[in-house]
Amino acid sequence: MDSPKESIEESYEFFDYIKTYLSHNDKLNDNEKFYKHESSCEFMLNDTIFTEKQRTNSLCERFNYLIELLTSEKRNNLSKCDKEYLNFWLNNELRTTDDKSPIRIKYFYDKLKQKIPDSYINSLEGKLYNITDEHFENMRILNNLYKNYGKIFNEEHNVVCGRKEKCLEYSNICYNEYKKGLIRCFKKQGNWCQKLFDFNNMYKTENIDASLFGEFSYNDLIELPRKEDVEYELYGGLNSWKNLIMLTFSILGSTIGIFFYFYKVKNINS
């Protein structure tokens, strides 16, 4: 198994362009686009390092087609964010295809580079690696948030989820994923938490005027949980166990103080 790079501090910068990346991702099921990449991906067919699921789901062809989509408009090198997204995409595909198998990111890249020694593939040297579990889960939450939000509203600010029940289903997924994210941010700050709050701001401010023939509108969105509400739910009104200890000592201190007060008064009176 490729070892994850523990020292890397992920930037999460590619989430600034996640809507574009997800729009490309939606096109990766078009099998007719894979034929030009089949020969360069033959190495996966008989390589037992990969599981049967990984060998048969056109992962390699889809990866190459994703690079093609990313570079078709710019006609230049992959950007820093493009490379970060490709790394997340590959990690996500290998983990979700067969979560019990080792993640072979570097092995996959080395084999692919032998077949396609072009500038795009070469520029990914050192950029594809096993993302640590903590960062991967953070990215997965953000990806799920934007993916499900995109099933409600498209880039033209139209409602695309059809029936109200389906729209609320996607909105509820956003609620639950955002709640998971908030919990992970309670004791940590940084790039990841800021991207989570950026999603919240977008969720509250975009598509205010969007509606679908009275079936669903912005006002029907499930409101995302607030940090203080989730804290209250988890800790019963106390921000953390430290607050509980402080409250306990505060009560004990007051009780002891009252005891000594009455003890002193009693001695004076006697």
Write the layout of secondary structure elements.
Elements: H1 18-25, H2 52-56, H3 59-72, H4 80-97, H5 105-115, H6 119-122, H7 133-149, H8 164-185, H9 191-205, H10 227-235, H11 241-269
Helix pairs in contact: 3-4, 7-8, 7-9, 8-9
Organism: Plasmodium vivax (malaria parasite P. vivax)
Protein name: VIR protein
Transmembrane segments: 244-263
Question: Please, could you describe this protein's structure?
Answer:
- It is a single chain.
- The protein has 270 residues and is an all-alpha fold.
- It has 3 domains: 13-122, no CATH class; 133-237; 238-270.
- 56% of the residues lie in helices and 0% in strands.
- The chain has 11 helices and no strands.
- The chain has helices spanning 18-25, 52-56, 59-72, 80-97, 105-115, 119-122, 133-149, 164-185, 191-205, 227-235, 241-269.
- Helix 7 packs antiparallel against helix 8, helix 7 runs parallel beside helix 9 (191-205) and helix 8 (164-185) runs antiparallel to helix 9.
- The protein starts with 17 loop residues before the first helix and ends with a helix.
- The mean pLDDT is 85.
- Keywords: Membrane, Transmembrane, Transmembrane helix.
- The chain crosses the membrane at residues 244-263.
- This is VIR protein.
